[in-house]
Amino acid sequence: MTTAVIRRPAPQPSVDASDVSSRTQRSPRHAWPLWLLVAFGVILFGAVYPWAYTPLLIAAAATGAYGWWSSPPRHRQAARGVVVALLGVAAVVVVQLLPLPPAWLNRVSPATDAVARQFDLSYAASQASTGTAPHPMSIGPAATIKGLAFLLALSIFLAGATAMMPRVRVKWLIRRVAGLGLVMALFGIVQRGTFNGKLYWVWTPINTAGNAFGPFVNRNHFAGWMLMAAALTAGYVCSLMVQHGPRRQLTWRQRIASMSSSDANRLLFASCALAVMVLSIVWTLSRSGIAAFAVATGLLSILVSARFRGRRRIVTVMFLLIVVVFAVSWRGVDTVYDWFSRTSTLEWRFELWRDTLAIVRDFRWFGTGLNTYGISTLVYPMSDSTRHAMEAHSDYVQILSEGGIFLAAAAAFAVLQVARAIRAAFAQPQTASLYWVRAGATLGLIAMAIQELTDFSLQMPGNAVLFVLLAAIAMHRPPRHERPR
C-alpha cells in the first residue's frame, strides 16, 4: 500500500503592496506626459513666447501635481529636501513683493525708492503728493510675479516628476528624448546651411535671427538644450554597454546573432543619435556649449575608465573620442580654433558684469527683484550704450543682482539639496544600468551649470523643463522590486 505524499507549495517571499502597485503601473503612459512637455518646449522656439510658455508651465505644474499626489510617500522622500529648499527660495521672492511703507523700504532697500521713481510714474506721483506711498523691494513687481510663477510651476514639476519617476519606464523615455534630439540636431544643421532669416524658414522671430540655430533664436540656447539631451543619451549608451558590450566568450556566429537583436539596434540608434547631437553642438560654435561639452565628456571618460573593465572600457572610451574627433573635424579644426580665439563677446560680458556690480552694491540684501535685471539696466549706466542687456549673460551674476545675498543664499542651499539628493540616490542599491542612466542625467546638470557661467540658457522655458526632467531622473530612487538582491 502506497502512502500519498502531499507537498505544500514553497512559501513565497512577501511583497510590499506598493511594490506591486509600482510594478503594475510601470508603463509608458507615465512617460508620455514628460516627453510631450520636453518636445513642446523645444519645438516651439524654446517656449519663449507667452502663447507657448503659458500652456507649457500649466501642463508642467499639472503633471507635477498629479505625480506627487499619486505617488506613495517613500517615492516622494527623494524630493522632500529639495522641495523645502525651493519653498525657501519662493519665500524670499514673496518678501520682495511685500508692499513696505517708505520708512521700512528705506531701511531694508534704500535704493528702491530712487530707482522706482524713474520709471514708475504712478509711484513717483504718489510720493510727490503724499510721500507715504508703499512700494515692494522689487523695482518691477509685475516682472517679479511672473518670475515667481515660473519658479513655482517648475518646482511643482520637479517634485512630482521625481516622485513619479519610479513608475516611469526611464529608458523608454530616454530613447524618445534621444530621437527628439536627433531630429532637432539634423534640423539645426540643415537650417543653418539654408538659413533665410526665419525659423523653420517661415517664422520671423522677436529678435534678430542672425544668431539663430534650429528652433532657437540664440545658438547658445540650442547648445544648452542639446547638451542635456546628449548627456542623457551618453548615459543610456553606457547602460547598454553594461548589458550588451563586447564579450570575449562569444563565437563569431553568436556575435552576428547578437548584432541583430533589439538591444543591439537600440545601442546602434543611441550611438548614432549621440554622434549627430554632438556634431550639432560643435556646429553651433557656441563657446560655452562646446566648453561644457568638453568638460562633461572628460568626466564621463574618467567614470567609464574607473567602472568598466577590459574591452568594454576600451571600446567605450574610444567611441567617445571618435565622436569628438568626428564632430570637430566635420566642422573644421581651423574654424573652431579661430572662433575660440575671438574674445570680443567675452570681453563684452566682463564689462557687463563690472557694470552690474553697482546694482549689486545698491541692492545687496534683497536685490532688485526676481526677473528685473532688464529693468535695472535701463536705469544704471552701462559701458555699452548701443545694446540693452536684458540678461546678465551669467545666471549666477543675475541671481545675485536680482536677489541679493538672501536669494543667492537660498538658491545655493537649493543647489546643495539637489546635490545631496543625487548623492543619496547613487548610494541606493540599484542596477548598473540605472546607475549609468543616472550618471548621464547628472552630467547633463553639471554641463548646464558650467554653461550658465557665461550664458542664460535656463531662462528659456523649454530648456528649464528638460533640466528639471534630468534632475528628477538623477534624484529618483529605484523601486524595491528593481533593486539588486
Put the structure in a nutshell:
By secondary structure, the chain is mostly helical. 71% of the residues lie in helices and 0% in strands.
Plain-language structure description:
Helix 2 packs parallel to helix 9 and helix 4 runs antiparallel to helix 18. The protein has 485 residues and is mainly alpha-helical. Helix content is 71%, strand content 0%. The longest helix is centred in the C-terminal third of the chain and has 33 residues.
Blueprint of the fold:
Elements: H1 17-25, H2 32-43, H3 50-69, H4 73-97, H5 102-108, H6 111-119, H7 121-129, H8 141-164, H9 170-193, H10 219-244, H11 252-259, H12 262-284, H13 287-307, H14 310-331, H15 333-341, H16 344-362, H17 373-379, H18 395-427, H19 432-451, H20 461-475
